[in-house]
Amino acid sequence: MFARQRSRCGNSPSNKVSAQKARQWSPERLHCLFIHLGGNDMLQRKYAGYLYVLPGFLLILLFIYFPIVQNIQFSLFEWSAFSADKTFVGLAQYAKLFHDPIFYQALVNNIYYAVISLIFQVFGGLVLAAVLEDKVFRKISPLFRTIYFTPVIISITVIALLFDFIYHPQVGLLNGFLSAIGLESWTRAWVGDSATAIFAAIAVSQWQSIGYIMMLFIVAIQKIPQELYEAAEIDGASKIRMFFHVTVPQVREMTFVTSTITLAGAFTVFNEVYILTGGGPGHASEVLGTYLYQSAFVHDQMGYASTIANVILAITLLISLVQMKLSKTGEE
Amino acid sequence: MKRILRFATGLLLIFSLATGCSTADTPKQASADPGGNQVSPAADQQVTLRFFHRWPRDPDKTYFEQVVKAFEQENPNIKIETEAVLNDAYKEKISVLLGTDNPPDIYFSWSGEYAYKFVRGGKALDLTSYAQEDKAWHDQLMESQLVPFTLDNKLYGVPLTIDGKTFFYNKDIFAKLNLAVPTTWSEFLSTLQTLKDNGYTPITFGNKAPWASSHYIGTLNQRMVDESTREKDYNRATGTFEDPGYVEALKKMQELIPYFNKDVNGLDHEFARQLFIDQKAAIFYAETAEVRLVEPKTKFPWGFLDFPAIEGGKGNPKFLTGAPEGFMISATTKHPKEAVKFLQFLTSKAQAEKFVKDVGKYSAVKGAVNANTATPLGIEAVERVTAAEGLALWLDTDLDIKIVDAYLAGTQQMLNGEKSPEEIMQDVRKAAQQVREQSK
């Protein structure tokens, strides 16, 4: 194929039309360029492939790896957004971060986020998916699938504002509901109370994301061969046993995928917390994302914010590595 | 050789694709003020100014649109591009914008430390010479309102509004319970107790966005700590906050907690205001700028109540908490003269009167708030601001943001009963130490 096209890329301008054509940028021309770079057919086979991935590679380099490296560099300086001079402080900001009680508060909140999300989204999503895929619910499952999936397509800003009304201490739906069923003593200022603020935000995420995880599991369950269930049924397995002994092992791959998504999401969460509580009261519901934002755009400590960003990166990277190691695959 | 050249061209093409968006800006900008537009020399040159403020909502928005239009008609060679974003977003955006090579020419700023940090960063134009040139314009601005825009005897901003914090109280409820207006802290507390005993919420307070508590703390600090100590502590380079008055001030705030409505940290300031309007609460600590938001909606008589004098306090009880807001000009603007001209137009008497009338806020231009432009309550509010013997600026714009954060996060927890005044002050001192070290 290359050989055939090579004839059209010759330097001899015998064919005027093709010479003219060659002056404009066309896929053919680009190909010719690559072939020229290759020199002869052997070299060309060897390198042409790399050249084709070059544009994509450069874009990733420019927009992902370059900012990461630059961010690491930024974290070594103390600087403000509206002043040009940066002061080199070395690793001082990392030392400061690891002595910062707010950082640990935020980290603990992120860990709450991760654990609760794993239980509700990954396990809960799997249960929901299994229930909806069961024969008994075949008829109505499309309806429920849509219902559970709807929150996923609503903007998180809208959702957070919506929950603002639900959590409102005096006119909110939640407190109103609790009073109506006689649990007056349970009512509280959900987002204004240090003990509940972070959980109020976590609850919103569960409500929003469970549908997405459920959808992924439904796809995985649909790929399980029906024979396995039939065999289990003949052996007299109950629905619950079938779930644990057929469904769970069969969707193992997907479980790794969803838990990676959920965990990475739990450590980079920002919107829900920012809109609902702003990290307050005090710093009770601060997460790494909001603390990063505060440091950068409110306190104007850009270097410190970069430091936090790098720590978040390190945490999520570590989680993905551990998970890849555990799953030992990467097929899906 | 030819191959390498072609390879390089290919690379260049890819890079120009990737960076296309950022480089495309430069030529556009250059053509935005096309000095070479054929005809005439300097005087008639077409000039574009970028104007950035924080009022994207009406009535302010319309007012500024009209001012810009009127100014452009008077000065056909100047064009003004306006952009506006709301409060908190403004704070974040302006910091970033001023860091770029292309900051807005004229931008809004709060006064005090908030403005000074722009000055220190070299982002604000020194307006002193312009003020000296146009004495008449300078003299019609309220002097007291220029102070928070002045650093080292140089003027860096032009105040647009004046504002002060005072209690609004429901005269109906006070009359019903036969209550006199309290003038001292102990009288104030017993008044609150009476209100509470009679089933009213004494003070409505929403601190979900924690700046609301900064106004209480700012006033209480001013009342408890003597002037020179406070001035020293509020200065970035010398603040230590070791005076016991600061702890006392927070304790006074603590004394008010039983008289606030429930769930203060879960309610926002707007909701608190609504409770006052709905007569569910008797007293509301508010800015004079809020008169325009409260007055049209209330169906009962109400008035102003000065923050009471505190027994044992070392500060002057005739001070008022409040601050002007205004505009600054970017130090790197290419058209300082035109930018100053716009601000002079904006703070001319005619425009200021229109501002008071249309927007309902109070102008820093002398005499702009009068019987033609404001309600009697509005005039009274302005009299209170101008009669004050001094201004204690908003705590959250007067102090370095790190100290503010220690204060506000701590106060939120104190309101929840999780932190003591002493613990808050420990955090504040720690933050102050960091700021001191930074300012060296």
From TrEMBL, chain B:
InterPro entries: Bact_solute-bd_prot1, SBP. Pfam families: SBP_bac_1. It comes from the Bacteria. Keywords: Signal, Transport. Residues 1-24 form the signal peptide. PROSITE patterns: PROKAR_LIPOPROTEIN (PS51257). Belongs to the bacterial solute-binding protein 1 family. This is Putative ABC transporter extracellular-binding protein YurO. It comes from Brevibacillus parabrevis.
